[in-house]
From TrEMBL:
Residues 86-190 form the MurNAc-LAA domain. It comes from Chryseobacterium oryzae. Pfam families: Amidase_3. PANTHER family: N-ACETYLMURAMOYL-L-ALANINE AMIDASE, N-ACETYLMURAMOYL-L-ALANINE AMIDASE AMIC. This is N-acetylmuramoyl-L-alanine amidase. The keyword Hydrolase applies. Keywords: Hydrolase. Its EC number is 3.5.1.28. Transmembrane segments: none annotated.
């Protein structure tokens, strides 16, 4: 009789635990610019479109894992102000923030690749170092940018490449390039 009670009790405990809410990690992806703010632009290719497409792919990829919920600061061609973005971030209190951008120089350049900007704290710097391992060798720099300065959680700003570099521009604006970039960032998020 005791064995039967133990089996029933174990079964009930398993049922109750299976319906318990899971604690998800919140991740904010900020797709820079938007609306009338095109960001870096060359040959009809706009930063705001590249970063939004990649942000949506990251959300879709990461949320396949029940442990994460990705919140986008914008999911359409709108322009939330920098203050609105950081206010949203600070209300959500996520595990981390990744702000996506595209670099540009005034003229065509040989400069290429990712650059990471960080807050002046160790958590942000540690995230950047881990992300750097997923992306490959790239500079990590401290910068006094609004989103980094005003976010109360670990935040990094990731420049995805140079709009003013022909190869980077072609890669970032291609479906394949955007998918590869999104997957690298998604792998980094799932690894944290």
């Amino acid at each position: 009789m005791k064995a039967l009670q133990l089996i029933i009790l174990s079964f009930l405990a398993a049922i109750i635990l299976s319906f318990s809410p899971t604690s998800k990690k919140y991740i904010v992806i900020d797709a820079g610019h938007g609306g009338k703010d095109l960001g870096a632009t060359r040959n009809g290719i706009h930063e705001k479109d590249i970063v939004l497409n990649i942000a949506k792919q990251i959300k879709k990829s990461v949320e396949r894992n029940d442990n994460y919920e990705v919140i986008l600061t914008r999911d359409d061609d709108s322009y939330p102000s920098l203050s609105e973005r950081t206010e949203k971030i600070n209300k959500l209190n996520p595990e981390m923030v990744i702000s996506l951008h595209v670099n540009q120089t005034p003229k065509e350049t040989e400069k290429t690749g990712f650059e990471i900007y960080v807050q002046k704290n160790e958590q942000s710097k540690n995230l950047a170092e881990k992300l750097k391992h997923k992306l490959g060798e790239c500079p990590v720099k401290e910068e006094n940018l609004h989103l980094l300065r005003e976010s109360k959680v670990p935040a990094i700003l990731l420049e995805l490449g140079f709009m003013s570099n022909t190869k980077d521009r072609a890669y970032m604006s291609s479906e394949e390039g955007q998918k590869e970039i999104a997957e690298k960032i998604s792998d980094f998020i799932r690894g944290n």
